[in-house]
Amino acid sequence: MRCLSHTGTLNGVERYRDRTEAGEILAGLLAHHAGEHPLVLGIPRGGLPVARPVAAALGGDLGVVVAAKVGAPGNPEFAIGAVAPDGVTLIDEITVRRLGISQPQLAAAVQGALEKLRRKQEAYDSTELAAEGRVVIVVDDGVATGATLQAALQYLRRLGPERLVCAIPVGPPSTVARLAADVDEMVCPRQPDRFRAVGEWYEEFSQVSDGEVEAILSSK
Fold first, then answer.
1. d(CA 119, CA 109)
2. Closest to 144 (Cα-Cα) out of 191, 102, 103
3. Which residues contact 74 (CB under 8 A, 6 or more apart)?
């Protein structure tokens, strides 16, 4: 693995220059999978620019796996669960009770997430390459609560891969530990104790457009 330079730090922890650099670092940590022709699946949209250098370095197939967050009523950015591509729903029951969310409110939130999931599947033509019997590496640009990523990982486990790997550049230790229980291998080189948002651990963290995702997938 070549030495990659970083020019910024946060709380003494080095930040990534951008998603491409993060992917290159992950690729180095996953080098033992070179020659296995892994299936590398990015979580759109931000996970695709990270997954691309991983797939290229390992000689793998590049694709996407989509899931959708179930947002809290009145605060859709706050995840109370997620829905997987096969419609299986994960709900954080403790958070639901703590927030006093009623069953009708929860049902409406889940329905909204399912509709969002269908739109994502149509937008990204997200028919995954066959995962059964393969090494499958799921990549995102980072994780906070991990609800959406967990739904995607559990969905892929149901497809019967030989080995399921999760590779993320940064995430809080508690979330990383919880996700590690769903995979055979977890790679997360930076797990800061003080964590507020994924974007603060990148010097450049602009929003990834649908057009960029399509360009990455069309050039694979």
1. 16
2. 191
3. none
Whether residue 171 sits in one domain with residue 76: no
pLDDT digits (tens, 9 = 90+) for 175-210: 999 999 999 999 999 999 889 999 999 999 999 988
The CATH number covering residue 161 comes to 3.40.50.2020
Strand 39-42 and strand 61-64: the pairing is: parallel
130 and 199 belong to one structural domain: yes
pLDDT at residue 220, rounded to an integer: 63
For 115, the domain range is: 68-124
What does each C-alpha distance from 6 to 18, 75, 152, 164, 204 come to in angstroms? 10, 35, 31, 29, 12
* 168 and 199 assigned to the same domain: yes
Asked if residue 6 is part of any domain, the answer here is: no
Are 75 and 136 found together in one domain? no
**pLDDT tens per residue across span 114-156:** 999 998 888 876 555 689 999 999 999 999 989 999 999 999 9
Tell whether 212 is covered by a domain.
yes
DSSP letters along 70-107, please? EEETTEEEEEEEEE-TTS-EEE-HHHHHHHT--HHHHH
The HSE-up count of residue 151 (CA atoms within 13 Å, CB side) is: 27
Q: What is the pTM of this model?
A: 0.89
Other Cβ atoms closer than 10 A to 67: 25
